[in-house]
Amino acid sequence: MDEPLLTIGAFARAVGLTASALRHYDECGLLVPAEVDSGTGYRYYTPELADRARLIVGMREAGVPIETMRVVLDSPAGEARAALAEFLEDQSARTARAEEAVRGVLAAVDAGPAARPALVELPGPVLAAAIRQVRHAAESDPASELASVLIDVGGTGVDVVATNRYWMAVRSLPAAAEGDGGRAVLSLPDAAALADRLDAITTAELRIADGTLTLAGQELGRDTTYPAHRLVLAGLEPAVTRAVLAKADLFAGLDAAAYAEVDLFLGDQTRLRSPHTAEQSEVRGVVTGPPTRLRLGTALFGRALAACLGDEVQLAVTAPDRPVVVTSPYQPGFTALVMPVRHDAEG
């Protein structure tokens, strides 16, 4: 007897995930629906998927990265336990480092003067375009603290940032800033409304203090933490393999793969291939450095490509399990980081 099919809403309520989270895990290939209606695109789930979903909920609550989730869900018990033990060990080390860093910051706060507000001027339409360019990297679940756009004022200008932990988009805008720097985290609706206002402002004068951005008397900002993107970018290891590739060929290859993941082979004959079929597509471009293979989430990689201006994209690859740096040769101030999908190194 066939198992009953549950709509995405009913399944979401049953397992404690949002519908947007279920769509994301489908895109990542972590929790694939039992059926997808070819006409409407509606996803349907069977009750037997609930146990897998509840494991995902538990790991998500603990902050387990998606690569480790995949090992836990799809590997023998011994490998799953080893992966979780390694995660806990890493978490403990990060917690110890965080405690030490916070103690140092507290000491500096106690000893130093109050920070001066960050003041910066830049063209309104330019900042509006930057917000719209990066916002697609933000988490889609409104309840998440990452359903936001970061405006970060530093010594060299303004960084506009969005991330959902699986990929990050950063647009750096040169501008003369005064004060000690500052950052404000805006909800996606507030960021969209700000971009609309900025379109009509020739020169925008921003003030950021205590996590609040002020423009023409209006204050915006979420009381939330946000990843330190400057540290992430500064901590990237030097690229081993670099490529300049035709964006149209990459999009065509992603469409042809027709699967949640795709393998990108960089070398003399660069190509995209579905990991589950023989379907592959040639990609025009130039590759320097040793050949390498990456497995990427189709939807995530597609969004990063769409955010890049121009007909070509540049990739900088350190290793198959490290972030891929995606940039545009036509817009030096834009950077995207895309996390590859964990895979075996055959092929």
TrEMBL record:
<dbReference type="GO" id="GO:0003677">
    <property type="term" value="F:DNA binding"/>
</dbReference>
<protein>
    <submittedName>
        <fullName>DNA-binding transcriptional MerR regulator</fullName>
    </submittedName>
</protein>
<feature type="domain" description="HTH merR-type">
    <location>
        <begin position="5"/>
        <end position="75"/>
    </location>
</feature>
<dbReference type="GO" id="GO:0003700">
    <property type="term" value="F:DNA-binding transcription factor activity"/>
</dbReference>
<dbReference type="InterPro" id="IPR009061">
    <property type="entry name" value="DNA-bd_dom_put_sf"/>
</dbReference>
<dbReference type="Pfam" id="PF13411">
    <property type="entry name" value="MerR_1"/>
</dbReference>
<dbReference type="InterPro" id="IPR000551">
    <property type="entry name" value="MerR-type_HTH_dom"/>
</dbReference>
<dbReference type="InterPro" id="IPR047057">
    <property type="entry name" value="MerR_fam"/>
</dbReference>
<keyword id="KW-0238">DNA-binding</keyword>
